[in-house]
């Protein structure tokens, strides 16, 4: 994805294990959920300072299972940014999966604004949100068709981008 100004590094390479205790009146059950979850950061270099700078400025996203690479911008503003605009929003999406991408969704204010089912490993597209009015947050959600040993799909979620309308 050549348009990145910085490199994407994956942190937390080991799987996280969550233990949950379920109980009923007569008996309880314990189960373990294992998912390889990672945080990807857009850092200028692979140093502690650069990685923490990227995290502070929300230039990151989360993935589970596969190492999906994504880039999400609105009017040229990266994930994690807040900005004002006076017009329509141009949304740019780049996704590189490790398998077939089942779904790419742009979420606006908690609701799916746009969805695409590409059926291929790489997806690049742009669209214009001409219905934007006052303020909104957007994020990208990606579902890859492969499944882990527990039957869970691979996911990626971008950091949000917050947009406010500039008074005209």
| Structural class determined from secondary elements | mainly beta
- Pattern of helices and strands: EEEEHEEEEEEEEEE
Say how many strands there are: 14
What's the rounded overall pLDDT mean?
82
Quickly count the helices. 1
Portion in strands = over 45%
Would you give the CATH topology? Answer: Immunoglobulin-like
Q: What is the share of helical residues?
A: under 10%
CATH class: Mainly Beta
N-end to C-end Cα span: 36 Å
Low-confidence stretches: 1-7, 11-33
The CATH architecture can be given as Sandwich
Number of discrete domains = 1
Topology:
Layout: E1 7-11, E2 16-23, E3 28-35, E4 37-43, H1 48-56, E5 60-64, E6 69-74, E7 82-85, E8 89-96, E9 101-108, E10 111-116, E11 122-129, E12 135-147, E13 153-158, E14 161-165
Parallel strand pairs: 7-14
Antiparallel strand pairs: 1-4, 2-3, 4-5, 5-13, 6-8, 8-11, 9-10, 9-12, 12-13, 12-14
Overview of the molecule:
This protein is mainly beta and 168 residues long. It has one domain (7-165): Immunoglobulins (Immunoglobulin-like, Sandwich). It has one helix and 14 strands. The chain has one helix at 48-56, and strands at 7-11, 16-23, 28-35, 37-43, 60-64, 69-74, 82-85, 89-96, 101-108, 111-116, 122-129, 135-147, 153-158, 161-165. Strands 1, 4, 5, 7, 9, 10, 12, 13 and 14 form a nine-stranded mixed sheet that branches. Strands 6-8-11 form a three-stranded antiparallel sheet, with no helix packed on it. Strands 2-3 form a two-stranded antiparallel sheet. A hairpin with a 2-residue loop joins strand 9 (101-108) and strand 10 (111-116). It is globular and about 50 Å long. The two termini are 36 Å apart.
């Amino acid at each position: 994805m050549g348009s990145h100004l910085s490199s994407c590094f994956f942190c937390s390479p080991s799987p996280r294990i969550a233990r949950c205790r379920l109980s009923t009146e007569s008996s309880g059950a314990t189960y373990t959920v294992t998912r390889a979850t990672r945080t990807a950061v857009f850092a200028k270099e692979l140093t502690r300072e650069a990685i923490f700078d990227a995290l502070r400025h929300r230039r990151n996203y989360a993935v589970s299972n596969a190492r999906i690479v994504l880039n999400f911008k609105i009017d040229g503003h990266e994930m994690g940014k807040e900005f004002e605009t006076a017009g329509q929003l141009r949304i740019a999406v780049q996704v590189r999966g490790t398998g077939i991408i089942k779904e790419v969704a742009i979420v606006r204010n908690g609701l799916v604004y746009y969805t695409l089912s590409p059926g291929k490993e790489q997806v690049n597209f742009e669209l214009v949100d001409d219905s934007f009015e006052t303020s909104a947050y957007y994020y990208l959600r990606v579902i890859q068709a492969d499944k882990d040993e527990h039957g869970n799909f691979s996911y990626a979620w971008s950091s949000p981008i917050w947009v406010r309308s500039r008074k005209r």
